[in-house]
Amino acid sequence: MKFFKNLIVLLIFLLNSNYVIADEPSVWLKGEIDKILISYQNNDLPNENRFLMIEQTINNNFAGAGIAKFVSGEAWKNASKETKKEYIKNFKRHLALNIASMMQGYSNQKYELSESKIDSKNKIILIDMEIFSATGSVVVTWRVKKSKERYFVIDLIVADISLVVTKRSEFNSMLKNVNYDLFEFNKILLKQNQESYQKITD
């Protein structure tokens, strides 16, 4: 969980770029991130509107269903179709709420975005983003996949640590407490989402 929070902190530092990339996937990625960050520069925008913008961006640009399935581990295979559908919805909101909760720390750090590279073996696009601070810099690698003429974020890597793998470990700990019953886990995730939503939109 700590890694995930640290990762989201990095994501909120991505607005002031002094480096323009002509590469199509990189331009797409920057544009989608900036949609969120620009809303956080508008002090007149209600918190609920900011969150809804984040949620819309996550739903449109992250491979939410695929990530949700992966992080649920063995609980997925025994769940009903309706339970899986509800879980994917809960997971997408969980992801958006986690990002929104970290936006409080936004400040105007600089970054440089590299051109995309193709991982032919795994059929994915890798985009490195170097984020600068007073104490140094860190590189975040976005794993992006093109499907049906669209790009989707499928993972983020920091210091060789995967966001998706980390979330799977976190969820596994909670699923273990309900004997990997996705129906029961949905209740826990829904409650967490409701509490987080209340805090973010107050």
Structure write-up:
By secondary structure, this protein is α+β, with helices and mostly antiparallel strands. It has a single domain, classed as Tgt2/MlaC (Nuclear Transport Factor 2, Chain: A). Helix content is 53%, strand content 21%. The protein is built from 7 helices and 7 strands. The chain has helices at residues 2-11, 24-41, 47-61, 64-72, 81-102, 163-176, 182-201, and strands at 16-17, 110-113, 117-119, 124-133, 136-147, 150-158, 161-162. Strands 1, 2, 3, 4, 5, 6 and 7 form a 7-stranded mixed beta sheet that branches. Strand 4 (124-133) and strand 5 (136-147) form a beta hairpin. Helix 2 packs antiparallel against helix 3 (47-61), helix 4 (64-72) packs across helix 5 (81-102) and helix 5 (81-102) packs parallel to helix 7 (182-201). Mean pLDDT is 84; it is low at 13-21.
